[in-house]
Amino acid sequence: MMNLKEMTVTEAVRTAKEISGKTRKEIAERLGISRGVITRYLKEGDDYSPRMGMIPDLCHALENDIILQWLEVRI
């Protein structure tokens, strides 16, 4: 069981990506952004995270709502 409350945003994005089974390239193409941006979202220790307006699109690209669930427990 995931403990979303204890996760960082990077861990939440990584978990959502793992569950989706999608590659960085596939996610970037669906979002119309570079693969480098996705890499930064996934890089531990990098404070770069998706802006709030990107969250719904990212969830859609990943075909799950893990990041939204993470936000909900953090609020």
Summarize the model shown.
By secondary structure, this protein is an all-alpha fold. It is built from five helices and no strands.
> How are helices and strands ordered from N to C?
HHHHH
User: Helix share of residues?
Assistant: 55-70%
Unreliable residue stretches: none
Largest sheet: none
How many angstroms separate the termini? Answer: 20 Å
**Rg measurement, Å:** 11 Å
Q: What portion of residues belong to β-strands?
A: under 5%
> What is the average per-residue confidence, as pLDDT, rounded to a whole number?
93
The count of helical stretches stands at: 5
Structural notes for this entry:
The chain has about 80 residues and is mainly α. The protein has 5 helices and no strands. The protein has helices spanning about 10-20, 25-30, 35-40, 55-60, 65-75. The two termini are about 20 Å apart. The mean pLDDT is about 95.
Features:
0% strand; mainly alpha; 75 residues; globular; single chain; 5 helices
Task: Annotate the secondary structure layout.
Elements: H1 9-20, H2 24-31, H3 35-42, H4 55-62, H5 66-74
